[in-house]
Amino acid sequence: MTVTEVRKARDRRIDLFRGLALAMIFINHIPGTVYETLTSRNFGFSDAAEGFVFLSGCSAALAYGALFGPGRRLWPAVSRIWGRAWTLYLVHIFVTVWAIGIAAATLRFGGDLSLIVRDNLQYVFADLTGVLTGLPLMTHQIGYVNILPMYAMLLLACPALIVAARAWPLATLAGSVALWAASGLWLIDMPNFPTEGGWFLNPLSWQLLFVLGLLTGLAMRQGRRLVPRHPALIALSVAMLVLSCVWIKVPAVADAGNAFMVRLADLGLPPLVRDFDKTYLSVPRLAHALALIYLMTALPVVKRLSDSRWCEPLAQMGRMALPVFALGTILSFAVRAVKAVVSETLAADSLLIGGGLLVMWAFAYVREKARAAAAMTASRPERIGEPALRRAA
User: Fold this and answer.
1) What span, in angstroms and rounded, lies between the C-alpha atoms of 180 and 50?
2) Cβ atoms < 10 Å from Cβ of 92
3) Distance of CA 255 to the CA centre of its chain
């Protein structure tokens, strides 16, 4: 049976929250500032990365879902998605080289080792041949530059996931949950080289959020919600968000909660259930992220807010997510380099972080205007008598 898909206007909530996630990721990648305490990870168990991956799956469904419809050729759709994965890989290598260059320049010209001796950058100098082998294979990732490898792996699997999700949505979700549980229970991860261990953001675990986003996007294409609005679910989501915020902000509650988690460990429950691990997307992080996502999609006020012109700067950043993320990551390393060699003050942090966010927005604004101008030029009818050679060019 063919499901009718509905063409709808672009959902600005996706752009808004993706832009907000990019802003918070930039701030969180500059540790030690007062602004870091204002981002979402200080009020709950999850952070901006969970939302970013969910929105990536949702956007993939909206962008590519129709390419796998009845009567469509498979390879053009697959090649388009894999081309995007290749772009992500190239951007990852580009950003990684910039991160290494900024850290090296901080040592050479500022005499500061702080960027070199952490975030896996130290192995560039301790094991150069191993790192130069691992970097192009994505088996050696620099700290704060590890989300694109995971995203690229998910995009490689995306064609198969879309085909499965369109034909067997419940089975696809069940398989995704099973893979998430297996990777977390038995600590299955992508391998590292030349260092030991696995990827910081394990694609085998994080695929669950991507698949949930994918199923949500496919449902949106059909003009429906994946999970219906229900007062009980809204109340449960609010309760989860309040509990996690109080857990983090009230020491007595944190002590009691942590003691409860220790008790669960004594009872033999696995770390996937009782820890707050980011690599394997443990239950508390996942539950908090899903509660927040559900609430943000279920409350009408969020939709009205996303349509406000005051949110347009964040929405513009969200529409230009990949280049803005790359620029923001490079800027975060540059800001950390400046903070390493100059005196840290609130005024300096405000100038650096505020300036970085302004540059990210300006970059998104210029790119969007350039794209719109290029699209308008391409859509203009050719003038009568225009030389064929010029048309071909």
Assistant:
1) 14
2) 25
3) 31
Asked whether 62 and 217 are in contact (CB, 8 A), the reply is yes
Residue showing tokens 């067997």: 168
State both tokens at 317. Answer: 């950043």
CA gyration radius, the chain: 22
pLDDT of residue 71: 85
Q: What pLDDT score does 7 carry?
A: 56
Helix (H) or strand (E) holding 220: helix 203-221
Q: Are 88 and 152 in contact (CB under 8 A)?
A: yes
**Residues with pLDDT less than 70, the chain:** 1-9, 381-393
Other beta carbons less than 10 A from residue 123's beta carbon: 15
Q: CA 99, CA 96: separation in Å to the nearest integer?
A: 5
Contacts of 304 (CB under 8 A, 6+ apart): none
**Lookup: tokens for 182:** 């297996």
**pLDDT the model gives residue 382:** 57
Task: With beta carbons less than 8 A apart as the criterion, state whether 144 and 119 touch.
Answer: yes
Spatial separation of the C-alpha atoms in residues 292 and 313, rounded to whole Å? 22
The one-letter code for the residue type at 280 is: Y
Instruction: Report residue 225 as tokens.
Output: 């919600």
Q: Give the SS3 label for residue 198.
A: strand
Separation between Cα atoms, residue 15 and residue 253, nearest integer Å: 35
At 22 the pLDDT is 96
State the Cα torsion 12-221-203-243 to the nearest 10°: 60
Q: What is the pLDDT of residue 5?
A: 62
Q: Is the dihedral of CA 386, 387, 391, 393 positive or negative?
A: negative
Residue type, 330: I
Closest alpha carbon to 162 in 62, 240, 54: 62
Under 8 Å between Cβ of 206 and 214: no
Q: In whole angstroms, how far apart are CA 85 and each of 76, 99, 109, 213, 343?
A: 14, 21, 36, 17, 40
- Three-state SS annotation for 80-148: HHHHHHHHHHHHHHHHHHHHHHHHHHHHHHHCCCCCCCCCCCHHHHHCHHHHHHHHHHCCCCCCCCCHH
